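During the no-cost extension, the postdoctoral fellow (Dr. R.K.) reprocessed legacy sequence entries with the updated structure-token encoder. One reprocessed record is reproduced below for audit purposes.
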Amino acid sequence: VQFLADPMGQFFSGDGWTIYGGLIGGFLGLWWYTRKYRIAFLPFLDAIAPAMMFAYGVGRQGCHLAGDGDWGIVAAAQPEWWFLPDWLWAYDYPRNVLNRGVEMVDCAGKYCHHLVPPVYPTPVYETLMAFTIGGILWALRKRLTPMPGMLFALYVLFNGMERFVIEGIRVNPEHEALGGLTQAEFIALLLILTGTVMSGYFWRKYRKAGLP
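Re-encoded structure tokens follow.
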């Protein structure tokens, strides 16, 4: 209902579009650039796929350090089996740039709030997942070089899977018009579908050509 009432406002709200809007815009920009300068488009996309995943992970650390609101829902009680530092399970984002939460005692400066209760530090989780995916893509790059487009297809697929998983514990508004999904979840599902179709297409294409 909210989306239907103000589709353009929701489209430009930033809810899930901050990274995906940049990804889509960047994709179109690269398409134009490669056509203008006669650069092979698919090999170019393959070349930047691992770097894009690593860059996303680094960017999420910026979100975490700033406390810009990309955190998760209120964390559940820490399980007994948890052996990592407590802040990796639940973090209160002290001095977050949004000044969300409760004012800190004996704090001086412009940013003196922290979250009570603490939340899941989802940017950290995304960084770990992004670096893992980036490492996988990097390891596959030489093997998939004879199959232009395949590495980028896997990037699209893994990117969507990562975001859909993390959205389960992130703070983002759900939309009835999207079946109760957040905008980021909806876009992530589109990426998963796109990446799956692309991967299947390239796999069949190159298998028919006799490539491994």
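The beta strands are 102-103, 113-114, 174-175, 181-182. Confidence is low (pLDDT under 50) at residues 8-16. The remaining legacy entries will be reprocessed before the final report is submitted.
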